[in-house]
Amino acid sequence: MDATDAPLIALIAGETSGDLLGAGLIEALRRRWPDARFIGVGGERMAAAGQHSLFPMEKLSVMGLTEVIGHLPELFRLRRQLVDDLLARRPAVVITIDSPDFTLGVAKRAHAAGLKTVHYVSPSVWAWRQGRVKGIRRDVDRMLTLFPFEARFYEEHQVPVTFVGHPLADMIELTVDTAGARAGLGLDGEGRVLAVLPGSRGGEVGQLMPDFTDAMTRLHHRYPDLRFVIPAANAARRAQIDAALADTPLPVTVVDGQGRAVMAAADVVMMASGTATLEGLLLKKPMVVGYRLGAISHAILSRLVKSDYVALPNLLCRKPLVPELVQKALSGEALADAVAGWLDDPDGVARLKDDFTRVHEQLRGGASEKAAEAVAEVIGEGGR
């Protein structure tokens, strides 16, 4: 049987957001090739879609530059093990998903050994370390971008690229049922709701919860009817959040998972920078974005980053629509004031929702199917 009739396809993801994208892509590829086999590295969603993972994806989830250093020997060992496995099995294509510091190294070796490669989710080459585009042009047969401004960058640098949009834009309806989300979380009849998302990694939660808790305390004094809801990404984050809230007399509800439902139920969202900010945009929610890295990581990144913004809503709209509080600018007082700015400005919230709706419409349109079509094109190509 020809390989394109039932191809062996490798997908490598390193984070929860990549697992979501990978699962959608596997499902779209299976509609094209019902008997295709999927190997590589993924999380629970990709496993449910039918992928056999060589090792748990969580082993690749490390936050920050200096935080990675202590894990480098293990990361290098895992990458060697993964590449050796791919070279032995010779899949029809190797699809690396986000986590570029790990996955592009896989793509480099796989491509050098004659395997076809696709990278899904552009690294932020337009913002920092632009020299990486040379390696991408050499090692990647097709770049799949989530956002149109990224595709324009690659076209300018002669890298084969397909703008696919974002699967979340397809999953999330243009109109959000806030009342239904509140009912589902048992928040019927409550006053206004602030969703608090301190991140999915232990390092993020440790850095952000003290300031987020301080902000909630300040907001509780200012708006006694304001409810706080925090979704915990997993059991470990739940324990971390519960510990941070111990002895805090705040009207806080901590739920397991359900981050999207919590944001849908909210009037305003206070959150860590990351992929969840895109979900907030698609849910049309006013938000305040906070982030803090370790001092050394931030010192390095601040010298390399060329972008004016860190939050995806601001990057996509190319203007400061939502407050970003990073490093020294991040404090409980600043967060509380920024959240209050949304709570007290319904006209501003309405304008923001209009901007977010336009972005949602631009990103919507079958991302997983478009990605699968691009992968099929690469499998069918005789080489670049």
Describe this structure in words.
The protein has 384 residues and is α/β, with parallel strands linked by helices. It has 2 domains: 8-165 and 365-380, Rossmann fold (3-Layer(aba) Sandwich), CATH 3.40.50.2000; 178-363, Glycogen Phosphorylase B (Rossmann fold). Helices cover 51% and strands 15% of the residues. It contains 18 helices and 13 strands. The strands form 2 sheets. Strands 3-2-1-4-5-6-7 form a 7-stranded parallel β-sheet, sandwiched between helices. It has a 6-stranded parallel β-sheet with strand order 10-9-8-11-12-13, sandwiched between helices. α1 (16-32) packs across α18 and α5 (100-112) packs across α6. The radius of gyration is 21 Å and the shape is globular.
Characterize this entry briefly.
The protein is α/β, with parallel strands linked by helices and 384 residues long. It is built from 18 helices and 13 strands.
Give the helix/strand layout.
Layout: E1 8-13, H1 16-32, E2 37-41, H2 44-49, E3 51-53, H3 65-69, H4 72-89, E4 93-97, H5 100-112, E5 117-120, H6 132-139, E6 142-145, H7 148-156, E7 161-163, H8 167-171, H9 178-184, E8 193-197, H10 202-222, E9 227-232, H11 235-245, E10 252-256, H12 259-265, E11 268-272, H13 276-282, E12 287-291, H14 295-304, H15 312-317, E13 324-326, H16 332-343, H17 346-363, H18 367-380
Parallel strand pairs: 1-2, 1-4, 2-3, 4-5, 5-6, 6-7, 8-9, 8-11, 9-10, 11-12, 12-13
Helix pairs in contact: 1-18, 4-5, 5-6, 9-12, 10-11, 10-16
Catalytic activity: a lipid X + a UDP-2-N,3-O-bis[(3R)-3-hydroxyacyl]-alpha-D-glucosamine = a lipid A disaccharide + UDP + H(+)
Protein name: Lipid-A-disaccharide synthase
Organism: Alloalcanivorax profundimaris
